[in-house]
Specification:
37% of the residues lie in helices and 17% in strands. With 378 residues, the protein is of the alpha/beta class. It has two domains: 138 residues, Rossmann fold; 220 residues, Glycerate kinase, domain 2, CATH 3.90.1510.10. Strands 3-4-5-6-9-10 form a six-stranded mixed sheet, sandwiched between helices. Strands 2-1-11-13-15 form a five-stranded parallel sheet, sandwiched between helices. It has a two-stranded antiparallel sheet with strand order 7-8. Helix 1 packs across helix 13 and helix 2 packs parallel to helix 9. The longest helix is centred in the middle third of the chain and has 22 residues. The two termini are 13 Å apart.
């Protein structure tokens, strides 16, 4: 019997790797002869780097870079087991949680550090990149990233503008002549489930600016600046990019990567493909997945649904084990053989989070016993 365990994290309590290993323990106890493969999942946000390094036996590289407020920070990126692909999480170099609440202002944050990490990886000989865009604190359209990679964004006096969101409306001229010489040889795959365009009422500034600390007045100024910036970039590249779905992801960073000919695809797809999930599922008898909270929103591109659809392609049943089941979870039964919440008694959320590992093991053990008994009855 082969079991593939491919969960997302239980945010706030267990990482995807911890969820997978806890479920694995239940199978090792009840069906010790089973082949159990753990492939942690993520959607491009927090946990993407750890999931990919675990699945591919990659390595983490510690370094320093410019943080979201322009300060030097300790951070890291990853190199996959293929020794050819770099993985960078936006949240680790310019993440919203890195900025104190009283300093959150997307007019003053930057993606410059992300560009520094990319340049460092290129200088190490890496040419393939996976970038997770989730959890950003920025709204600079990738201005900072591109500057760190050698692009010039000049004001009316011919001076390089500061690499922050409020500078977008000051740009008068571009100079891409000094871009990193090896950029053209690089392939960027962007992990993001955001489909917003760059500008307008559904764009980066209006939709995501307020949650990053922007006032109503700032939102309008940022959007106006973003349009100016985008028009100049498109003119330089002779390409229309700002209305491509995902251009508005991570404060317009999606647009910045589109300017580098990047491919924006589902975060779950990026992680699954890099980890070889489909090849493992082909030979599986059961697939187990889960997340912190499953409800009707799981149907909109969340990792467990991606896993279930992949398993369905090969006629393999998928079981969902999540921290909790919320509104509309009944709809999930169209995609999963069964859906389970690990909470087994009335309790406060804080207690459930604190006891998540024990609760998950207990739930997984019961499910494992059912699977074992069903296999014996065949």
């Amino acid at each position: 019997m082969k079991i593939v365990i491919a969960p997302d994290s239980y945010k706030g309590s267990l990482s995807a790797k911890e969820v997978g290993n806890t479920i694995r323990k239940a199978f090792n106890l009840e069906i010790p002869e089973a082949e159990v493969v753990v492939i942690p999942m993520a959607d491009g946000g927090e946990g993407t780097l750890d999931a990919l390094l675990f699945s591919t036996q990659g390595q983490s590289v510690s370094t320093t870079a410019t943080g979201p407020l322009g300060e030097r920070i300790n951070t890291c990126y990853g190199i996959l087991g293929d020794k050819e692909t770099a993985v960078i999480e936006m949240a680790r170099v310019a993440g919203l949680l890195m900025v104190p609440e009283d300093k959150r202002n997307p007019a003053l944050t930057t993606t410059f550090g992300l560009g520094e990490l990319i340049a460092e990886a290129i200088d190490k000989g890496l040419r393939k990149f996976i970038i997770g865009l989730g959890g950003s604190a920025t709204n600079d359209g990738g201005l900072g990233m591109l500057q760190a990679l050698g692009a010039g964004f000049l004001d009316l006096e011919g001076n390089q503008v500061k690499p922050v969101g409020e500078s977008l409306q000051k740009i008068a001229r571009l100079d891409f002549s000094n871009l990193h010489p090896n950029l053209k040889a690089c392939k960027f795959r962007i992990a993001s489930d955001v489909e917003n365009p760059l500008c307008g009422e559904n764009g980066a500034s209006y939709i995501f600016g307020p949650q990053k600390g922007a006032t109503g007045e700032q939102v309008m100024a940022l959007d106006k600046g973003m349009r100016n910036y985008a028009d100049l970039v498109e003119e330089q590249l002779n390409n229309n990019l700002q209305n491509i779905p995902g251009a508005g992801a991570a404060g317009g960073l999606g647009f910045g990567f589109l300017a580098l000919s990047a491919e924006i695809i589902s975060g779950s797809q990026v992680v699954a493909e890099a980890a070889g999930l489909e090849d493992q599922i082909k030979e599986a008898d059961w697939v187990i997945t889960g997340e912190g909270q499953s409800d009707y929103q799981t149907l909109y591109g969340k990792a467990p649904l991606y896993v279930a659809n992949l398993a369905k392609k090969y006629g393999v049943g998928t079981i969902l084990i999540s921290g909790g089941l919320g509104k509309g979870h009944e709809q999930l039964l169209e995609h999963f053989v069964s859906c389970h919440a690990i909470v087994n008694a009335p309790m406060q959320v804080e207690q459930a989070i604190a006891d998540a590992e024990a609760l998950l093991f207990s739930c997984a053990r019961n499910i494992t016993r059912l699977i074992n008994k069903a296999s014996q009855l065949k």
